[in-house]
Design brief:
The structure holds two protein chains of two kinds. Chain A is of the alpha/beta class. Chain A folds into two domains: about 170 residues, Rossmann fold (3-Layer(aba) Sandwich), CATH 3.40.50.970; about 120 residues, 3-Layer(aba) Sandwich (Rossmann fold). Chain A contains 13 helices and 14 strands. In chain A, strands 3-2-4-5-7-6-12 form a seven-stranded mixed sheet, sandwiched between helices. The radius of gyration of chain A is 18 Å and the shape is globular. Chain B has one domain: Rossmann fold (3-Layer(aba) Sandwich). A five-stranded parallel sheet of chain B has the order 1-2-3-7-6, sandwiched between helices. In chain B, strands 4-5 form a two-stranded antiparallel ribbon. Classes of the chains: A alpha/beta, B alpha/beta.
């Protein structure tokens, strides 16, 4: 299977978008090379800003640009684009409800070799609690392109999270993805596996293994954790009643938590959450870091069976 | 932009000071000290220097005003209400539920170009606005008032770097150097050394003035107009916190306290007679 980092999808699509609309801006913070905005900077210099290593200011500059009708994408790593800039996002982007997108590479454990300082495991959860924010993680290179385009053409503050490392390409070019709507990859009746980002490919493989054992799984790509597709979660509860969530994020306040909020209020259904076990990562191979947290095909299969 | 005379501006500043103190008195909440120190600059901006249209607050060619020290918004609200951005009666609704006039500026209020209130953040937004203006070939300028205490926030200096890099000579930063912050004087809490020197070191043209002297403010605006040299502008202004009300002047405890009835009446009397 072909593997491409989703940051690459962002980098390609943002150039196309910038050429179509000269109001699309990129605000870089000296990591444009690794966030894949070098082509944008070269081809669209009048729509490119590099504020240096100054993320807080980047958020404010983007807010100011947005008040003047621009659609700025602040581009950084997920750990900085959520936590370093957090209060600036809250005050100047979310409270003001400006059309600023925070587009981040290095989501989850994917900057594996860089270690814990660069691995973002809290970002989506923190941003999910800020009013007006939309929080998205595409599942592959194709989804990244589709959702970046959707973000650019949909008003409002948004956080988009991409992988540093290569992950399998799971979608065909004609896939249709809509912000706030779960994408059903396959249907099943014994368990629902709800995943996002780089764990969707694991969910697909787990579903295949479960099928070999006679269990059929509904697999949902919940690329948008806010606004959550509540109806899709409710349908899982009503149709199946057993859900495994999978995410490359702390199990606190990410996808699993968001799903559990819906399930708890329904008073029906069982959920098993798979994700980072509320612990920091380290420099290690990506697959090892995922395995240390139980984010594996085998564990998805095990948790699905445990629910039966 | 209007040719309002210095004498007229002084009268308007007196009126805005009285309105700001009245708003804070009626709300029994708000920040009088900084509102009074920044009053003359705010007056000169809105009633002379800035190119704005109160009937069309979102006009895309307008000059922008960013009150980075957002807690002193009563003085800005007084200016906006007087100019007719919203009905002047709304000035009596400061900090009330459902009011445009939130405790710190909110974009739902006509004439507020960006929400502020968390210190250190407004200047970066002003830089973004000035940059958009340059990129779009627009003539508008961006005026921003920052506090001297606020300059302890690192983001202020990040914003200055960007203003220098992108040659934002359409950005005018007013440093309201009243030398007081909540826990004491700026020298006690965190010495700023010389903010004028700091802004100069960050590549700004710096103008040192008495920020409560209307003639000096107006003269500085005239000098700035002649300087299209690619350098952002800093008006480093010595001001008096609580300016115009004797018992508030240079008294740090009037940072965020409303006057009682007796104090309010004295303030109104002094403001009327003193200017």
């Amino acid at each position: 299977m072909k593997k491409i980092a989703t940051r690459q999808g962002f980098g390609e699509e943002i150039v196309a978008l910038g050429k179509e609309d000269n109001g699309i801006y990129v605000v870089d913070v000296d990591i444009g090379k690794s966030c894949k905005t070098t082509d944008f900077a070269k081809q669209l210099p009048n729509q490119h800003v590099n504020v240096g290593i100054a993320e807080q200011n980047a958020a404010g500059v983007a807010a100011g640009l947005a008040t003047c009708g621009k659609t700025p994408f602040v581009v950084t790593y997920a750990v900085f684009g959520s936590l370093r800039m957090c209060e600036m996002i809250r005050q100047e982007i979310a409270y003001t409800n400006l059309n600023v997108k925070i587009a981040c590479s290095h989501g989850g454990l994917t900057p594996a070799n860089d270690g814990a300082s660069h691995q973002a495991i809290e970002d989506m959860g923190v941003l999910r609690t800020i009013p007006n924010m939309t929080v998205i993680m595409p599942a592959d290179y194709v989804a990244a392109k589709k959702l970046v385009r959707a973000a650019a053409t949909t008003y409002g503050p948004m956080f988009l999270r991409f992988t540093r490392d290569n992950i399998p390409v799971i979608y065909d070019e004609d896939v249709v993805l809509e912000i706030g709507k779960a994408h059903q990859i396959q249907d099943g009746k014994d368990v629902a596996i709800i995943a996002n980002g780089d764990t969707v490919c694991l969910a697909i493989e787990a579903a295949k293994k479960l099928a070999e054992e006679g269990l059929s799984a509904r697999v949902l790509d919940m690329h948008t954790i806010k606004p959550l597709d509540v109806e899709a979660v409710k349908a899982c509860v009503n149709d199946i009643g057993k859900i495994v969530t999978v995410e490359d994020h702390n199990i606190l306040n990410g996808l699993g938590s968001a799903v559990c909020e819906v399930v708890a209020e329904m008073g029906a259904g069982k959920v098993k959450r798979i994700g980072v076990q509320d612990q920091f990562g380290e420099s290690a191979p990506y697959e090892r870091l995922m395995a240390k947290n139980g984010i594996t095909i085998e564990n998805i299969v095990a948790q699905a069976k445990a629910l039966q | 932009m209007k040719n309002t005379s210095v004498a007229e501006l002084k009268n308007i500043a007196k009126d805005l000071r009285k309105k700001a103190v009245t708003m804070i008195y009626e709300a029994q909440s708000g920040h009088p000290g900084g509102s009074l120190s920044a009053a003359d600059f705010v007056t000169a901006c809105y009633f002379r220097e800035m190119n704005v249209d109160p009937k069309n607050p979102k006009w895309e060619d307008r000059d922008r005003f960013v009150l980075s020290k957002g807690h002193v918004c009563p003085i800005q609200y007084a200016a906006l209400g007087t100019l007719g951005y919203f009905p002047e009666e709304e000035l009596h609704t400061l900090r009330q539920e459902g009011s445009h006039l939130q405790g710190h500026p909110n974009m739902k209020c006509p004439g507020i170009d960006i929400a502020t209130g968390s210190l250190g953040q407004g200047l970066a937004c002003a830089v973004g606005m000035a940059l958009a203006g340059k990129r779009d070939g627009k003539k508008y300028r961006v005026f921003s008032a920052v506090g001297d205490g606020e300059c302890q926030e690192g983001e202020i200096w990040e914003a200055c770097q960007t203003a220098y890099k992108y040659q934002l000579d359409n950005l005018i930063v007013f440093v309201d150097n009243n030398n007081l912050q909540i826990d004491g004087t700026t020298d006690e809490v965190m010495p700023n050394i010389d903010l004028g020197d700091k802004f100069a070191a960050f590549g700004f043209d710096v103008y040192r003035i008495d920020g409560n002297d209307m003639q000096q403010i107006v003269d500085t605006f005239e000098r700035i107009k002649m300087r299209h040299n690619g350098k952002p502008k800093c008006i480093f202004a010595q001001t008096v916190k609580g300016k115009g009300v004797s018992y508030m002047e240079n008294v740090g405890s009037w940072h965020g306290v409303a006057p009682n009835k007796e104090e309010y009446e004295q303030a109104m009397k002094e403001l009327e007679e003193g200017f």
